[in-house]
Design goal:
The chain is an all-alpha fold. The chain is 62% helix and 0% strand.
Length: 379
């Protein structure tokens, strides 16, 4: 049965005890002896730091106490030694690998822990211990690099919140790259004073709307230029491959669909991309862009584009925010790509006046056949 020791500060010695007396107490096993030993050690901690001649004796005392003591004694000892630069290194490392509530003060503050000790903790200890290391004030660049190299999401996120850690330019670059897959890194990195403008603009490609606004505000950049850069960056990954594929093949259409999905996921799918696609003679990109922007199925868009009248196509375009003054030019470009369709039957309804996006969407759906949701563009 474990005996819990209640520490009694009133029994603290009036003067710092002798090391020999503490060593004798350390060899006893009774709870009372353990309490008197702990109180004696605490009194010694509060006195002048011991000189080098006492260090071997104190090391034996401390290790004996830590190995045999109950949890509350180890916790109290950890708190007492957290700032002691004279504490025995062996004991500090034992406490650093103890359960996290005991280890936390040592991991956060002990000046005795060296880089080698922290690196070992990153490998051997629990996730909570690793996070505590990453949050340690004035963390060295060597340990920061090790955190990034290991790639544990929660530990990297803790490092990103540590404003005093030494993180190199390459370290920031790697953290930014990791933020593509680790969403928890994005906010802390964008708030970190060490992040530069170039890396922030790179992150713009995959962060959410609120963080994109934060980037634009902090670094005073034009969001429209960043949005265009996102399109160019995403398209650039696929462009070389697309140039090798013949027009109107299923493979090319799939590449265009993936481009639209990536832009939509990045929050950068805009009506201007639909117009740009038509000008660049990329018919499948027109179809998938309009489908994703309007929430229509690909089959419904194709119905509108193959109709004998441009009415449904106009309503689809109006529903996603394309101005009616721009529509005639877009229609002409699309007809060049689709054998003259949509046809020219019917009236030029875009000349009648503007429609709200909601009204235009309802009018579009009334003209095309209902379709199953699974045919919409996948993102």
């Amino acid at each position: 049965m474990t005996v819990l020791v209640q520490l009694d500060p009133s029994r603290m010695p009036d003067r710092a005890p002798r090391a020999q007396d503490l060593l004798a107490l350390a060899r006893e096993q009774s709870p009372d002896a353990r309490q008197r030993l702990l109180l004696g050690v605490m009194a010694l901690c509060d006195a002048s730091p011991p000189d080098g001649q006492l260090s071997p004796i104190l090391g034996e005392i401390f290790l004996s106490l830590a190995r045999q003591a109950e949890r509350d004694i180890r916790k109290a000892l950890s708190m007492r030694l957290a700032h002691a630069d004279w504490a025995p290194a062996a004991l500090v490392n034992v406490l650093a690998l103890d359960e996290i509530e005991i280890a936390a003060p040592i991991l956060a503050s002990s000046p005795v822990l060296q880089d080698e000790d922290l690196l070992r903790i990153l490998i051997e200890a629990s996730l909570d211990h690793q996070i505590a290391v990453a949050r340690r004030p004035q963390l060295s660049g060597r340990v920061s690099d090790a955190v990034i190299e290991r790639g544990v999401p929660a530990v990297m996120a803790a490092l990103a919140t540590n404003r005093t850690a030494q993180i190199s330019g390459d370290g920031f670059r790697r953290l930014v790259e990791q933020s593509r897959r680790v969403a928890a890194l994005r906010g802390p990195l964008l708030r970190h004073p060490g992040l530069d403008k170039a890396l922030a603009e790179q992150m713009y490609q995959w962060v959410g709307a609120a963080l994109r606004e934060s980037i634009a505000t902090r670094f005073q950049v034009d969001e429209s230029k960043l949005g265009s850069a996102v399109y160019d960056a995403v398209e650039g990954v696929m462009k070389k491959r697309l140039d090798e594929i013949l027009e109107d093949t299923p493979e090319r259409e799939e590449m265009e669909r993936r481009l639209v999905a990536k832009l939509q996921a990045a929050g950068q799918l805009k009506p201007s991309i639909l117009i740009r696609a038509a000008r660049e003679k990329r018919y499948s990109l027109v179809i998938h862009s309009l489908s994703a922007l309007g929430g229509f199925t690909v089959k419904q868009v194709q119905q509108a584009l193959n109709s004998s009248t441009p009415e449904a196509f106009y309503y689809a375009c109006a529903s996603v925010g394309i101005d009616r003054a721009v529509f005639p030019t877009l229609l002409a470009e699309v007809r060049k790509l689709n054998r003259g369709l949509p046809g020219d039957q019917g009236q030029a309804i875009w000349q009648r006046g503007a429609l709200s996006p909601a009204s235009a969407a309802r009018a579009f759906r009334a003209l095309v056949e209902p379709d199953t949701p699974d045919q919409r563009i996948a993102v």
